[in-house]
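Hi team, as promised in this morning's meeting, here are the two structures we talked about. I've kept the exact order from the run log so nobody has to guess. The first one is mostly here for context; it's the second one we should focus on when we meet again. Sequence first, then the predicted structure tokens.
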Amino acid sequence: MEALVDLLVEMGYEKGYAEQAVKETDCGGIEAALDWIAEHPNEPGPSHPTEELSTAAVRSYVCEECGKKLRNDDEMQFHSAKSGHCSFSESSEEVKALTEEERKAKMEALRVALNEKKKQRLEKEKQNEIEDEKRRREQGKKLLNAKQEFKEKMERLEAEEKMRQKAADKAYRAQLLAEIEKDKAERRARQNGYASAATTVAPAAPAKPNSASTTIQSDECHLQIRTPCGAPLKSTFKPTDKLADVLQYVCNNWPDKPNGVTRSVVDSEGVTLQTTFPTRKFTEEDQSSTLHELGLCPSAVIMANRLVNY
């Protein structure tokens, strides 16, 4: 409402009369207000004060800063609020009201000004939308670049980890083969020692045919159990002990990662046993067999591994 009143005041109508015109037309717009004014040229209202001016000589006011002539206090206050000018002087010259042609011309000028402001506002909004879209695309591009860099970094770390794991596995296999060869050499040395002792004790009598050969058996079974981490487990069993006893021993002394020094108890269902030379993976049926029956006496190296889900 105030915007319409200001437009009417700027076109030359008194503020009270302009307020009444806008109120009577229910804020229907500048054209409706002008139509009401044209139909009610002598309508009584706030724009027609009953009291006469205290000073008849004062017919108008002049803005000393821009020279604009103003008919009354309302126009002077409106001009001051709009322009920021504060210096006014009284004048005895009466400011004539605008003719119909002047009002139409001024209204057209106001319409042009409003359209220009609207155009500038739309252009500014469009420019803001373009800038927002640019920022959105730049942010999306930065996000994609960050994701790509993170992916490449993770792939690089994964490749490095695979290389380290491969090198560690290679070193572990080399160490394992060396220890297996050492155990085989020790076994051969012990077997050669037993054979030498048997030859020394035997009487120097003519050999007699004998269909059954004597087999020297040890009372102990020395096992070395290797796990994925830590030092090997070493223990001595009896030849009559079963493979299940060895499995239980391994599960009760499983080395913890990463150093393998501390021990923990693990589920026996998640642990597998096998030999490398010769390669043999023991099954559940082998658990009831003795170490002698499985050919692990007098010594052997066993590999122990855990299943992934355990």
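And here is the second protein, the one for discussion:
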Amino acid sequence: GLVYESLKPVFWSTGAQTALAEAEVEYQDRQDTAVYVKFPIATGAFAGKASLVIWTTTPWTLPANLAIAVHPKERYVVQQFQMVAQASSLPPAQSNQDGCVTLVLAASLVGAFSAATGWQPSGEPLQSFPGSKLEGIGAQHPFLPRTAIVLTADFVTMDTGTGAVHIAPGHGDDDYSLGKANGLPILSPVDDLGRFTHDVGLPELVGKYVFESNADIVRLLRERGMLVAEQPYQHSYPYCWRSKTPIIFRAVEQFFIRIDDLRQEALAAIKKVTWLPAWGENRIAGTVESRPDWVISRQRSWGVPLPVFYSAEGEALLHPEWIRKLADLVAKRGSNVWFELDDIALAQELGLPEGTRHRNDTIDVWIDSGVSHKAVCANHPALRDPADMYLEATDQHRGWFQSSLMTSVALRDRAPYKTCVTHGFVVDVDGKKISKSSTYSKPMDAGHFVGKHGADIVRLWVSSVNYTDDVPFSEEMFTRLGDTYRRIRNTLRILLGNLADYPAVAGDAVPGSVEFTLVDRWILDRLQGVIEECRAAYAGYEFHKVYHTLNQFCAVDLSSLYVDITKDRMYCDAPDSPRRRATQAAMEQIFGTLCRLLAPILVFTAEEAWGYRHAAAGSVHLQIFPEPQGNLRDAVVREQIEELLKLRAVIGQAIEKARQEKLIGNALEAAVVLQCDERFASSLPREELEEFFILSDLTLEPGQETGATISHTPHKKCARCWRHRAAVGTIATHPELCDRCAEVVEAHA
């Protein structure tokens, strides 16, 4: 009982000559002519003395007018007006001898009406009453020989117009519902091409396109003295998504799905789905709450047949067994069989009663895509049903997301997806949407950018943006993104270089015998935080957070701090020194983790880097995704490093000042006296602090205030590590080296 046939207004594309669903409608700004029109009161106390005045932006629908709607509870007035400006096109003959005209409209809109038309109130209202008092009276049609009945309706609003709404039951949803409730005929004197038929009642309009007839109708109103005022009106108007032509509301026999029978189940199913971003839930719920019945028939010569047959008497027949037979026939011979076979041949093929007919109507394409959960997921055991995630653009809350939801609720009483992720549109630097249907001077095909920049750069760009908003795009963005890519690639290269003499370990286990230094423990603690942040971001489909987390980790934590600080031990310590091996153990963890965290985004780069070190373990894409290790978390170390970074900044400022004053050439030439908290100063070895601050000569002094004093070190420069040390020049065998470097050179001579 969900599907029914009815004559009611639908979105109609005159360009495509077919009915449309809401999801097939686009909105564009458009300028039309809005008119204020008199309907002279024909019955009741004010018959022949006053006119109801309506406002409409679609003059072409006036030939289909059958009623006028007013709000039952709003106050209406009978008011005389006098023209004081030339905004009106009402001929003088239509006013009283004193230049006044008597109109009936909502009391709250008198001021707005006057401002828009130039007609100003003359004296106090002659009468005031609720709209319910107008119900049932007749008003003469402005140019056709019939009377419009006044009806009351709650949908009449007081935000625009006059509070009196022109009702054409064949050209609007509210109009149709009100007309049907009051027994009015459904008049729609327009054909498939949007041209007036003979039912329009005016021979001069027959065959004219409705939008081209607006000027004729305005002229006719002016000639009949029924035009109170006209004005250009800019508004958002529905257009056909395919033909890009303005659509009309038109009453046509179509098939519909009863949405009211599904609405509450659909709203309940929405609450059980994860919506990303979260506002997606309100958006789709709002469209489901207000959605009218779904028109599912289309007048097209291609597509999936609407499997409706008609008896010899014209009754629509929807028999499940006939539909099943037709589905089997289409599976064997294709959907064109519906169009290729005539009624007799099709009836014989399907074994239908003699005289059975069929029409060439097809099913809304949103049914096609909307039942993919049943046609694909439910019929393939390897796939999950319901699907883990549906991904589409912001316009699909009334499109695919909703068509999938409604069909799934109808068939299986649940949503077809666990999560819905919404993305914005790609726009140019001016905010203009870039699409396949738009003309654009630059190549916008992804293949162009993959060929020019590489697939990983394209993937990195996608991951770098917050796709839930519209995404600005330009060729220049790829150029800038190349810097980020090179930074990440260079980080992997540096890690590989530092691990050249360290045995490969492809897991997350850290050797228990390693004695990590403070900075090693800090970077491993930081790495666990990065893992946590990336896992959470991947789980939430927030790829831009993964990008920013990993970019920050590579650029700041690794390149600017850890790699820079440990460079001396990696290059100048003995190859098997404990602290060098500790750093290599940490770098092994970092490298393996980075490759796996980057793999979903930089698929080729991660695979290439991983292969240089862990080829024997197989592809990086087949590895276990990193998980944070609680034993490597260390809040105390985190606090110590935060304090050291503050001191590093103090020293850095002092060194920069000394360099500008030509006191020193670089930081390694500085003898630094650091005043800081005594407890903190005594908690770490001076050698470890010198390494962290990348200094040659550091002296600590307890002090209440933190500060640094710079002088030029008296020590000579080591030719190997470039540190200025007291031992340089004192070692007979290696006078150019410091004691550490001399020992390493001797051991590996």
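Starting points for discussion:
The radius of gyration is 39 Å.
The longest strand covers residues 25-40.
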